[in-house]
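Input.
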Amino acid sequence: MWFNSLFIFFIGLLLSSCSGSINQPITFFEVQTPRPFGYVMGDEIKQRIIIDARDGLALQASSMPSIGEVNRWLNLNMINIEKTKTQQGFHYQIDLTYQIFYAPLAVKMLELPGFTLQFRQFGNTIEKKVPSWHFTAAPLRELAIRKDDGKEYMRPDTPAPFLDNTRQLNRLIVSLLSALILAAYLAWLYGLLTFLPKYQIFKSPLRKLAKLSADDLTASLNIMHKALNQLNGKPLFQHQLAGFYQRFPNYQPLHEKLTWFFNCSNQHFFSSASRANKDESEKIKALCQHCLQIERGKR
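Output.
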């Protein structure tokens, strides 16, 4: 009889313990941490908390540590909370990113402080302790440089590799070449390249005309005829002016002056009543000057 009573007592105790675990509001809790050694000043430490909670249990965000300075050498840079629905309730994944700014003189044990998470369920508060976590930090450099067999123990820092700027350099070269070609084209279009043969036809004749006296009309006419023939590519006569203007439309505004020039030349060379005139020599010089301006794109 007593054996049956003892058996029933143990069965009841077992059932009560099982029912208590089934009714636990937090069914799974785990704190995942990285390696506990090998950290230096400036390193980040990532900590992850995994929680499975039953339906109706809500994590209180106010119980999380605040982003920013934790103490004089530790900062909390980021908090990321992921909440997903499961069949039994909710699955929480909390990621914390710490950064240390401790510069130890030797290897030193440090601690990430613990904190308490709070959950609310039907007006009741349930707490879960996140324990503190210990790790070691090492100095960036030793206090003294040791030498072994006459050689330095510590080597200099490796120089940073250069960035590949080949693409940017090629783009710069192409841009400069394009700008140079465009500038040369505009200079040619506006007659700024006066050193080219195209812009040397009337330059020399104008200098020669400037040296002649007003009485030397024959030389002035020959010099101007030679310049016009050079521009035309063959001897130019008065009756060919229409075709000349089609090939060189920039000179058409000088039609009246060119007509006068050919009439003056015909009268001088083929008329017995011709005579030198100072005004005629000056007009020829002015005509050559205007041709030079058109040649250089200034008119």
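The chain has a mean pLDDT of 83.
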